[in-house]
Amino acid sequence: MISPLAYVDSAAKIGENVTIQPFAFIEGDVEIGDNCIIMPYVSVLNGTRMGIGNKIYQNAVLGAKPQDFHCTKCGGKLVIGNNNHIRENVVISRATEADGSTQIGDDNFLMDGVHICHDVVLKNHCVLGIKSTLAGGCIMDDYSILSSNVLLQQNSHIGTWTLIQGGCRISKDVPPYIIISGNPVAYHGVNAVILSHHNFQERVLRHIANAYRLIYQGNISVQDATQKIEEQVPMSDEIKNILEFVRQSKGIVK
To answer: Can you tell me the distance from the alpha carbon of 24 to that of 40, in angstroms, rounded to the nearest whole number?
Structure first.
């Protein structure tokens, strides 16, 4: 299943039923799990650890050296989970520090030209639109979506089930379950359509909307809003998640 026209270092660890197509380039300090497909002109570089069932499309670069002026030896890792689709021209950097790792979870879909910088944590079931960029240290929680050409600035945290619409530039944290749009970016309501398609109850959606009404439309501080949410909104896992996220954040998108 490995083309004789591909370069695969003899030290690389390749699992069972892996397809490596012509002109792929695999360095030695690499592990590729079972049932992965590596298409032509993909580069899988030192420090990359890949799980099972991943499909990597043409010209992707995995484990690139971090574009960080403070990076000297740059011995960190890139750890990729299972069943990800990484489309053409995607670049993912490994971590800056030797004991660190850029982390890609399971079942993510990265569209053409996505750039993920060093030390990013991308969790599970996320979609990253065409040419979106995640700067160093960003975190994207499960089921979050970036439309095309979204830019996350360094250390931004994107909450679960969040939708960020095309062209947005994000410099602060985005709480869970909401839609962000525009430039400058702003809150544009609860991500209700996607949540309802995934069996969130109507009652829970109303409670989420009430919580964010206090945060974004209550004309009070975020700290006071979280207190009022505890007093006025019925508690659920989703409301707890909102409160925990907002209280831990150094600043959310307003």
So the answer is: 5
